[in-house]
Design brief:
By secondary structure, this protein is of the alpha+beta class. It has 3 domains: 96 residues, Beta Polymerase, domain 2, CATH 3.30.460.40; 101 residues, no CATH class; 51 residues, no CATH class. The chain is 56% helix and 9% strand. The protein has 14 helices and 7 strands. A 5-stranded mixed β-sheet has the order 1-2-5-4-3. Strands 6-7 form a two-stranded antiparallel sheet. The longest helix has 16 residues. It starts with a helix and ends with a helix.
Length: 272
């Protein structure tokens, strides 16, 4: 159902001249990293350019979707009978990269049914997302990354070289290092040259220590700290989100809602 819903939304977007890119589980299934039934999905994640968001949301409304309450990004459509609703999680940015447009310019290649992230960018996203978005590193995330790397052609040398080059450009060596370490520990083999290229250096080692701590055990403070540690500019976005976020998450963008935002963050920070 979710894959079908994603394809329907992507086809409607293509007719309107909007590029839609699958993320996370949908991307892994579409690129053949997993076969259908091997990996569970609770929603379908997709990426589009920020400028295309208003038009794409109009398309979703035309397809019968509604904004999901208390969510800044998700849209849902009720399913017939007792089936769960179909949920599309719409992203216009990824926390590991500042400029989404870089992915649309340099990170895409033809997939089975449309454009998709290349293997190197898919690996970086699969490794960075759980730590930057959830402050944790699950066994499933490690398996995702191992399978992506396992699809690299030849001996994987070109794949790892591209991962290392992009990791330096995006500034995510510290974020990726817990994943690289675990893959290198076996049974998956990460070439020594790739390990050396991806190893944190200088001040990155301090950041990497925090990401490693989260990889070992999740904590609410780290969940909020890690994105800001990676991109300090996110601190302002946390404290003062745009009105659209406030309306979707809290139902109001009033001055009172903004005044309550720090208290809500503190409750999330310490209340888990």
């Amino acid at each position: 159902m979710l894959l079908g819903a994603f394809e329907e939304a992507r086809a409607a977007a293509a007719r309107a001249g909007i590029e839609v890119i699958p993320l996370k589980g949908v991307a892994l299934l579409e690129l053949g990293v997993y076969r259908p039934g091997e990996r569970d999905l609770s929603d379908a994640d997709l990426l589009l350019r920020p400028r295309d968001l208003p038009a794409f949301e109009d398309l979703l409304r035309g397809l019968g979707y509604e904004p999901m309450p208390h969510s800044a990004d998700a849209w849902y459509k009720p399913s017939p009978g007792e089936a769960p609703p179909v949920i599309l999680d719409v992203h216009t940015g990824l926390w590991h990269i500042k400029d989404t447009e870089e992915l649309f310019r340099w990170g895409l290649e033809p997939g089975r049914s449309g454009l998709a992230l290349n293997l190197a960018d898919l690996f970086i996203h699969a490794a960075a997302h759980p730590l930057l978005n959830h402050g944790a590193l699950t066994a499933r995330a490690i398996e995702d990354c191992a399978r992506i790397a396992g699809l690299a052609p030849g001996d994987g040398e070109g794949f790892w070289a591209l991962v290392a080059r992009k990791a330096e450009v995006y500034g995510v060596r510290a974020v990726l290092w817990p994943v690289v370490r675990r893959l290198a520990a076996g049974p998956f083999v990460v070439p020594e040259a790739a390990q050396a290229a991806l190893a944190p250096r200088g001040a990155e080692k301090i950041k990497a220590a925090f990401f490693e701590k989260a990889a070992r055990k999740h904590s609410a403070p780290l969940e909020y700290l890690l994105p800001v540690l990676h991109r300090p500019g996110l601190l302002l976005r946390y404290a003062v989100p745009d009105p659209r976020f406030m309306l979707r998450r809290y139902g109001s963008a009033s001055l009172i809602s903004y005044a309550l935002r720090p208290l809500r963050l503190l409750r999330s920070f310490f209340g888990r």
